[in-house]
Design brief:
about 475 residues, alpha/beta, Aldehyde Dehydrogenase, Chain A, domain 1, Aldehyde Dehydrogenase, Chain A, domain 2, 7-stranded mixed beta sheet, 6-stranded mixed beta sheet, about 20% strand
Length: about 475
């Protein structure tokens, strides 16, 4: 490896790297070659206890600081992250296989955006005064305590910051468990926060699989759980958190609709469909993988889409010219290949792609199916790979009913030049995050999250503050108390 990807130790706890080799070894595999680039160990019960104990110990003093003081540290961390964007992007590429062309402009930069945004907001987190004649009530916005963040493997740096930044801004401690598939990047986030002046114990990183997540979620010292992951994992974590009446945020999967009307700008609609299906090799939870295209423009859309997919540069993710990289793991690649087989056996028309590339690593061709019907597995189940399902429609009411006929409700998009229709369709979508004439933009200023089985709560924006803090009401009586006896 031209770059040292082996971390000093597996975990970052109380301001330093910590190791316990009694934990299960986790090999980190570079998706572009299949070679092992690092090994970390899953947290033992002793490591989990150490992480929670140090977070619990540090949290009260952190919450007692002013928001301005807390915010200054978060903003300093964002500056360090931007200064080190190249190295962080290289590490993210090794961790995930995503092209450097992508990681260098999306991953650490969006993490830095979150630290900067919530760092700027920390000083503004005030309560309110409510006058009631002579009497009055005031509210205090208070930290929850110890928060646990459980990350997904597609955006390890970003998710570590999306969860950590609002939690820390509100005065909480955060213990972050990355996905076992991508364990490297969150350690750098912890390092940078500590270097920026965050007191020890307030952002700890522990590695591990489901049992480590379960140990964190069920510990009585933990007050809040935020998960980014699949719906089945979300159900388990939500149930475990409910047992302890813990606060939760769930950012789960999707099978989002993207509707392209016959008056749409074809070039922009194709661009949106590419972003919503093939960015990060299709490994994005909000992807618009059910593309409903009006029959009048379907063949034109498919023709232009196929032409533009031919411009994808598939190759070494570290080459700045590469625009499409491998799947994150061999397992995920095989899951996606299984869906490609299902699509063909169910009678969908394979327009382009559909095969593994004959090269080392876990590469799949960008794949498009047309003539897909609503009952096919590729139109109902989340694939989490570079597979687009194109469905036909002619009538707005019909396509809205079909678009909403899913257990998921994470995102949805519409392409049309008719402004009235655009806003009407957005209002009718049963989804938490919607797009008009674009797809998958996720600025930190905008709330992000789902409805139905796609989750509960919101990340980013002012809305995230509600999920990392609680309100205390204080009634102040200025006149005499009236009692019945």
């Amino acid at each position: 490896m031209p770059y040292d990807t082996q971390p000093p130790a597996s975990h970052f706890i109380d301001g330093s790297y910590v190791e316990d080799t009694a934990g299960t070894p986790i090999d980190v595999i570079y998706p572009a070659t299949g070679e092992k680039i690092a090994t970390v160990h899953a947290a033992t019960p002793a490591i989990v206890d150490q992480a929670i104990a140090s977070a619990k110990k540090a949290q009260a003093a952190w919450a007692a600081m002013t928001g301005t003081e807390r915010g200054r540290i978060l903003r300093r961390a964002s500056e360090i992250m931007r200064e080190r964007n190249h190295d962080l992007s290289v590490l993210e590429t090794y961790d995930t296989g995503k092209p450097y062309q992508e990681t260098s402009v999306v991953d650490a930069t969006s993490g830095a955006d979150a630290l900067e945004y919530f760092g700027g907001m920390a000083a503004t987190l005030t309560g309110e005064h409510i006058q009631l004649g002579e009497n009055w009530v005031y509210t205090r916005r208070e930290a929850l305590g110890v928060c646990v963040g459980i990350g997904a493997w597609n955006y390890p740096t970003q998710i570590a910051c999306w969860k950590g930044a609002p939690a820390l801004a509100c005065g909480n401690a955060m213990i972050f468990k990355p996905s076992e598939t991508t364990p490297l990047c969150a350690l750098k986030v912890a390092e940078i926060l500590y270097e920026a002046g965050l007191p020890a114990g307030l952002y700890n990183v522990v590695q591990g699989m489901g049992e480590v997540g379960s140990a964190l979620v069920t510990d009585p010292r933990v007050d809040k759980v935020s998960l980014t992951g699949s719906v089945p994992t979300g159900r388990k974590v939500y149930a475990a958190a409910a047992e302890g009446i813990k606060h939760v945020t769930m950012e789960l999967g999707g099978k989002s609709p993207l509707i392209v009307f016959d008056d749409a700008d074809i070039e922009n609609a194709v661009g949106g469909a590419i972003l919503g299906n093939f960015y990060s090799s299709g490994q994005v939870c909000s992807n618009g993988t059910r593309v409903f295209v009006h029959k009048a423009i379907k063949e034109k859309f498919l023709s232009r889409l196929t032409e533009r997919l031919g411009n994808a540069v598939i190759g070494d993710p570290m080459d700045p010219d590469t625009s499409f990289g491998p799947m994150v793991s061999e397992r995920q690649m095989n899951i996606v290949l299984g869906y490609v087989e299902k699509g063909q056996s169910e009678g969908a028309r394979l327009v382009t792609g559909g095969a593994r590339l004959e090269r080392e690593g876990f590469y799949l061709q960008p794949t498009v199916f047309a003539d897909v019907t609503d009952d096919m597995a590729i139109a109902r189940e989340e694939i989490f790979g570079p597979v687009m399902a194109v469905l036909d429609f002619e009538d707005e009411d019909d396509v809205m009913a079909r678009a909403n006929d899913t257990e998921f409700g994470l995102a949805a998009g519409v392409f049309t030049r008719d402004l009235t229709r655009a806003h009407r369709v957005a209002a009718r979508f049963e989804a938490g995050t919607c797009y008009i004439n674009t797809y998958n933009d996720a600025p930190v200023e905008a709330p992000f999250g789902g409805s139905k089985n796609s989750g509960v709560g919101r990340e980013n924006s002012k809305a995230a503050i509600e999920h990392y803090s609680q309100l205390k009401s204080v009634f102040v009586r200025m006149d005499d108390v009236e009692a019945p006896f």
